[in-house]
Design brief:
The protein is an alpha/beta fold. 41% of the residues lie in helices and 17% in strands. This is Rhodanese-like domain-containing protein.
Length: 101
């Protein structure tokens, strides 16, 4: 697992780069605000229910949550399942909305 900052990610989104982004928050959190990507709450990852991510196993996978804690846990779990390039969004949506909303 590596880290990515909100600033780095925003630049990459704005440039139109193809990104593989995963939101691990709960559905009500995602409904309030999100930056896109697939949505699989952390609980499903903890239960190894990640079949829909199989095609992303070798891709750079950027994971986010509210503060960066759950996404960090998700990255570690995904790494243990064979994902090769996970990145945790440092500060999560709290940092993102502080900078960009």
């Amino acid at each position: 697992m590596q880290n990515i900052t909100a600033e780095e990610l925003k630049k990459r989104i704005d440039s139109g780069e193809e990104l593989y982004i995963l939101d691990v928050r709960e559905p009500h959190e995602r409904a309030e605000f999100n930056i896109g990507g697939k949505h699989i709450p952390l609980g499903f990852i903890q239960q190894m229910e990640v079949d829909e991510l199989e095609e992303w196993k070798e891709k750079e996978l950027i994971v986010y949550c509210r503060s960066g804690n759950r996404s960090g846990q998700a990255c570690m779990l995904l790494d243990s399942m064979g994902f090769t390039n996970t990145k945790n969004l440092v500060g999560g949506m709290l940092k993102w909305t502080e900078l960009y909303k």
